[in-house]
Amino acid sequence: MTAGGEVVVRLTGITKSFLGVPVLRGVDLELRAGEVHALMGENGAGKSTLLKVLAGVHRPDSGQVEVAGRPVVFSTPREAQEAGIAIIHQEFTLLEHRTVAENVYLGREPVRRGQVDRRKMEADTKELLDWLGEDGIDPAAPVSGLSVARKQVVEIVKALSTDAKVLAMDEPTAALADQEVELLYDLVDRLRARGIAILYVSHRMREVFDLSRRITVLKDGAFVTTAPTAELTSDQLVRHMVGRSLDALYPDRATEAELGDVRLALRGAGNDRVRGVTFELRSGEVVGIAGLQGSGRSAIARAIWGVEPFTTGTLELDGVPRRVTDPRAAVRLGIGYVTEDRKGEGLALRQSIRDNALLVRRAALPGSRGRKRSDLTALLESVAVVARGEHQEVRYLSGGNQQKVVLAKWLAVGPRVLVVDEPTRGIDVGAKQAVHRLLRELARTGVAVLMISSELPELIGMSDRILVVHEGAIAGELPAGASEEAVMGLATGHGIGEVA
Amino acid sequence: MTTPTTWRPRLADGTAPVLAVLAVLLVALAFTGPAYSEPTGYLALLKRAAPLVLLAIGQYFVIVSGGFDLSVGSLVTAEVVIAARLIDGQESATGWVIVLLLGFGLLVGLVNGLVTTKLLVPSFIVTLGMLLILDGAVFLWTGGAPRGALSPSFRVFGRGGVDLPVLGHLPWSVVILLVVLVAAVLFMRGGTGRTLVAVGDNEKAVRLAGGRVDRLKVLAFMLSGLLAALAAILLGGFAGVSAQVGQGLEFRAITAVVLGGVLLGGGRGSVVAAAAGALTLEALFSLLNLLGVSGALESAVQGVIIIAAVAYAALGVNTRLRLRRRAGTPEPAPRQ
Questions:
Q1: pLDDT (tens digit per residue) in A299-312
Q2: Which CATH number does the domain B4-293 belong to among 1.10.3470, 1.25.10, 1.10.357, 3.30.450?
Q3: Does A51 touch chain B (CB under 8 A)?
């Protein structure tokens, strides 16, 4: 297999334990110049730790790190940086109120006569931006005015300014909107073409298959395989990651007998962002909402939840017209909402699993002393939260388990309608499946589920019907099992099945 | 849960250290001062500490929900000065004045809370403003020398006691303290209390879960005001009337709460620990006093404590993470 240029980094037999708990058990990884190498594995598989070994944050217990053929031992992140290894973290590390150039040279400002040499700093930054083909960014502009995608470019330029040969990107698309992902693809391509080796960590299958040349899979800290991307199918990849085949990828859809009366009906509902929204949601049904980022699909969901309420039209719940003016009103009417921003809007991270699971009940429905302690325990068991106990703080849970706690929070009040926005974003394959199953089981108990997802396979796999939103209005409805092309056709404003 | 629940003491994170420090100080007191060879010495300590403990409990509600209340010191002064002026030695006025004082504490808290939540001014600024306003008002009203006098029956709460079966003679202040503490613990265990902590952790999540965040925050300020009024009643009886009676108590209360391991910014900490923090502070000052350390050093000591306690809490995060790894939790370290 000719995988591009010469080997820039080679890790062999890396092991690492934290106080006796093995996290890495003999991992091999080889990065070549000009190669995009995907690193995959479920949460807890050891990806983060491996990145940290590469970045000099952790020293491996055994095994060898070679850079450009020479064995090295990094004792500090700085030494790794000097050897040409840079990590782009999920969360940005930019100072919002400083300029692009100031951020790029933060802590390493060029000095001239005892003063920071702004001109040189900006010229050097400009040079790097040009080299990357990102000449639209002004080195003297403050970072706060840049889009998320451009901030990411600045992060990358910052890394490159230290002469990085290896760029490790941890979930780089997690914060990006759909259109911005395309820009990142281009950027990764240009970096690769300029001989940078890229280690790409992501949960998103499509990105990995679009971008990478080789894939390394970890499972439970152990090395599973490194294989050329072209020789793998997504099914094989999933099997490598979870160690079994996800044969039935999605739960069965609802049968006609399982569908009940109309739970939620919107007629001509609208506000600043959406207009003329009309649809019905029946009990027992999972209805998907598709649409591009910014199309209004989340705006519809947030309006139902009362965050930015509808100003026109009517909303009926079980046949009764209702006014939902704020989340409290929605919650008290039995509308639950699983937000796409789990950490920002869904959880109080320092509180226990128990306190989070009870949050809605305590906050919105005080005095409802229905369930007992054992009921809550049963509830947490039914969503299969893996934790040390109910009193563990949720910030120590993996993304998948956090999401299960968010679901439990709503299940604890027995909603009639549950709106879920990107329910599996950033969680691993196994947990995704669990969430899918849970949503379907919930529907079987008579809840009407409205699901938003930008992952089309998920949306199509889960939904009994799909509503497609385009420019603030519902462009059409598709039956279960519609093709991705049909969805995209409507979402982009073309007809069914004609994608430009 | 898919893993069996292991037993863990139901102490909130950060409670244990302050209890350990308190225990050490109490033992040290026993060795240092002859007064502490008997329970009465400790009872006197508890009586002295009662106003600060009440203030710390009030401050706890505000801090744990994400705010600060800097106005309580001035509020205590204002309450005592008002009481002296209105009662002016008349026994008959005592009852309605006490009601008025409690009402005034609630009112100040209500104003603090409403300005914070409705006008969106940070509580630090709002209560700093309230501190200055109350200070100024007291000075204007009294010209620096408070007039009037408290009635004997008013002073009973700070000075006197009650004979109880089994327990013997208990100062009123200790009885009040225990009642408030028990009420506070029950409140914090209930849904409203837990939600209040969640507000300090992630206000948005609570609001989106249907919680009334503004109301909860206003409630916290009102409780703080109410407890300041109660503290003023005890202090007035105990220490008498002066225009300096509440000076610096807001910082002392904040120090106590921080010493109790309550996270500044909210979201973590227990009310028992905050109360223990106040008691610890008072025990420390008593010990220093016995050792002949000048009282002038008290504020310096307080400064060191507040910095050290916050630094300890910050260090603690990393330590806890390491312990969790040792426990073999499979989750990756939380991204801060």
A1: 999 999 998 999 99
A2: 1.10.3470
A3: no
